[in-house]
Amino acid sequence: MTSAGLRLHLRRATPTDLEAANHLHRWQCSAESRRARYQGSRDRIRRAEWRYLVDPDRGYTFLIACPQRPGLIGLAHLLWQDCGPPEIALLIADAWQDRGVGTAVARHVVGLAVAHGHPVQQARIRTGNVRAIRLASHFGAIVDNTA
Predict the structure, then answer these.
(1) Longest C-alpha distance within the chain, in Å?
(2) Are 25 and 42 in contact (CB under 8 A)?
(3) pLDDT at position 108, please?
(4) Which of 32, 85, 91, 136 could share a disulfide with 123, CB 3.0–4.6 Å?
(5) What does the DSSP assignment read for the chain?
């Protein structure tokens, strides 16, 4: 739930969700939003990447939806790293940004990381992505803005 009372639904992604994830990338997220997330304006996730992202041994990938609206409004990842804190990544559809969705989802994902024994998370964020840096810092993540 966002601070404004908007109810969100998070569901763990599966291999069969690739088409929906790519629809989100291609049609609901601007090149600017994709650049902020990926350091490039890619408009899709390749099948091999998706298999990696949804592998339960690698962490969690969530589809984000709003029950009052059809389709996805975002993706969230909590990925275990070989050494160091887990990585958290979010991609929120342009129309849903600045509504508290990222904060609410980050709160959930950070709680999940803590429950798995990882009180510190890592966020790789470009220097110019002020919103993401502010969000990650709010939750105590280590911000890597060397990308």
Answers:
(1) 40
(2) yes
(3) 94
(4) 136
(5) --TT----EEEE--GGGHHHHHHIIIIIS-HHHHHHHHSS------HHHHHHHH-TTTEEEEEEE-TTSSSEEEEEEEE--SSSSPEEEEEE-GGGTTTTHHHHHHHHHHHHHHHTT----EEE--TT-HHHHHHHHHTTPEEE---
pTM: 0.90
User: pLDDT of 98-121, one tens digit each?
Assistant: 999 999 999 999 999 999 998 877
- Tell me the Cα Rg of the chain: 14
Nearest to 103 by CA among 118, 85, 90: 90
* 33 φ, ψ (degrees, to nearest 5): -65, -40
- Strand 122-124 and strand 142-144: pairing? parallel
Report the candidate in 26, 19, 21 with the shortest Cα–Cα distance to residue 41.
Answer: 26
Please provide the size of the chain in residues. Answer: 147
CB 91 within 8 A of CB 24: yes
Is residue 79 a contact partner of residue 86, using CB atoms and an 8 Å limit? yes
Which residues of the chain are under the pLDDT cut of 50?
Answer: none
Instruction: Read off the tokens for 50.
Output: 């998706």
